[in-house]
Design a protein that fits this description.
Blueprint: E1 2-3, E2 9-10, H1 34-58, H2 61-69, H3 74-86, H4 94-97, H5 103-117, H6 129-161, H7 167-193, H8 200-222, H9 239-248, H10 250-269, H11 272-278, H12 284-305, H13 315-334, H14 341-369, H15 375-394
Antiparallel strand pairs: 1-2
Helix pairs in contact: 1-7, 1-8, 2-3, 2-8, 2-11, 3-6, 3-15, 5-6, 5-8, 6-15, 7-12, 7-14, 9-15, 10-14, 10-15, 12-14, 13-14
Amino acid sequence: LTKNPSGKKDFVIKFRDQKNTGAHTGMKTQYLSAEEREKGIQSYLTFAAFNGLGFSFLGDTPIYLMAIHFGASNTQIGYLSSALQVSGLILLFLPRLLAGKNIIKVQFIAWLARGIVCSLYGVLLFVTGQTAVAIILIVYTLFCLLRTFGVAMDPPVQQMLTTPSTTGELIVGASNRGQWTRLLSLISSFLLLSLKELAEITGLLVLQVLGIIFNTSGALYLRRIPCREVVEYRHGRNLLVIFTESLKNRERMLTLCVQWLTLSVSIIFGFIVPFLRKIVNFPYNLVFLYTMLGSLATIAAGYFLKPFVDRIGSKPMLIMASFLSAAVALIWSLLPPSISWIVVFGLGFVTAFFQTIIGLLVSRLVLRSIPTRSKIGYTAMLNFFSAIISLVVGL
């Protein structure tokens, strides 16, 4: 702010030159350069690979098995099946709480912390019964809450790293990398739990230790992604306002409905694992063998979609895959407990294949529906209402 000879004040804006900056002025913007995007995509894909390993050990099947080992009820298992989404209730406060924070830093800290929290499972070596179940419920809830903070940042990060013509490619590429490493972790879990020395709870806790190691490795790669975007918060732009606005936009409203219906179906299919353990009486290693087959189906679905995911619309394939998934659900509901494991494995492969196709196509729709402004607010709203739906469906 300076004064000119006439006594009036003039505003003078000075720009500091920076390396690798935006168009004519050389000034960095929130948008990444081509080189930064390339670096970011490579770091993100590596993160996805480590995340596939980490999450497979820390969540999902091992948690079900630990809870069942200590005598968890069906309602408690129902909560565990929906906890990942139910934790989204915390997102009611996320935009205001994290306003101005770099989205990659938030995701990095959340991912790092969720691995540290899982070390509390070590207490299970000294307790039994419902006390142990309560510890599992509490620790897994904390794990899910921390994960939720990171997951809310994920769609804006993907959008930041891609263009409209490469969105599907990144989604499918990250899914394939994560599923390949998930498959590796499931094979490792199967082999470890087949050892007498690592039977029952000891083996499941060893898996948690491996999960913490790989989860931390993934967080370190996540931190390498270039990012200048921050969490936005505008006063009065709460989740209910964003939700109401989204319902008035026909395309976004339909995307939200499809996302929440798909989520509900995935939670219901999640009960297959406890069904195999509690009703069909599969041993631990055979349960992991089943999940390995599901990962193979997920990988197959990713490669099936990859050649044309960015070339065709999502609607035709979503309709077809949804009808086929509904038919598979009907078959599951009629299966007797005495069913052959060959039939179970075959049906599990088909189930995972169609669910993956639906999930990837819906993710692409959601990513394209994110508005330019209030990105975190929109994804927070999406996950918040997903949490309410998940709680109802899970219980």
